[in-house]
């Protein structure tokens, strides 16, 4: 479904991605793990067109999207939940969700998708008139995921969904990520520092160090790999 081939991305002189290749099949949950500054967020930003690649190619469902702008990439079905949520703090929950459906015109389907996200996260339904900035961190993460779901994504890009959240909320978020994948057949690409959770949730995983992919395997094989355990799981 998604093929990143030999991608190089720069911030000025900083060579953040040094020839990475990643493939994601339809229906998969893929996790990309790595330390701070490894290039995980840049991988998502490059996929969604926010920080374009300088070299290499990105294909989505057989179409070359390497040089498409972010809005065109969203329209094709790739939606990103950015690191740190970035919800609209002064808009209500309902208005934040409306913004997620901004590019859509299928009113009836938008209504049923709204029912779907309120069903996934009932707390958001009960807070629909509350402004986003007054929600807890966990609720803001739920809102950020829901806002992305309102774009009707074929593929959801999740940047550090566990960041700054309490363990019980992280567990809840990951179980809903699994549900979205299984019930809605949404393909999911997660980047995470919480390697244990991310690999548990993933069919396959990639490990990144200093802008390079150093290992790939099933989530389970990576989670039980001795080197990964030492480097990323603190075991
Ligand atoms: P983290 O988990 O801390 O977000 P990461 O693995 O997601 O780390 P990136 O944020 O992709 O890593 O950063 C990769 C490299 O690119 C790092 O060296 C970082 O300092 C650099 N970088 C990231 N964003 C920018 C930016 N806007 N301008 C300049 N350099 C950047």
Protein described:
By secondary structure, this protein is of the alpha/beta class. It has two domains: 24-51 and 69-77 and 153-235, P-loop containing nucleotide triphosphate hydrolases (Rossmann fold, 3-Layer(aba) Sandwich); 87-151, no CATH class. The chain is built from ten helices and ten strands. The chain is globular, with a radius of gyration of 17 Å. The structure holds adenosine-5'-triphosphate. Residues 11, 14, 16, 34, 36-42, 193 line the site of adenosine-5'-triphosphate (ATP).
Features:
globular, 6-stranded mixed β-sheet, single chain, alpha/beta, Rossmann fold, 235 residues, binds adenosine-5'-triphosphate, 4-stranded antiparallel β-sheet, 2 domains, 27% strand
Question: What would a concise description of this structure say?
Answer:
This protein has 235 residues and is an alpha/beta fold. Helix content is 39%, strand content 27%. It has two domains: 24-51 and 69-77 and 153-235, 3-Layer(aba) Sandwich (Rossmann fold), CATH 3.40.50.300; 87-151, no CATH class.
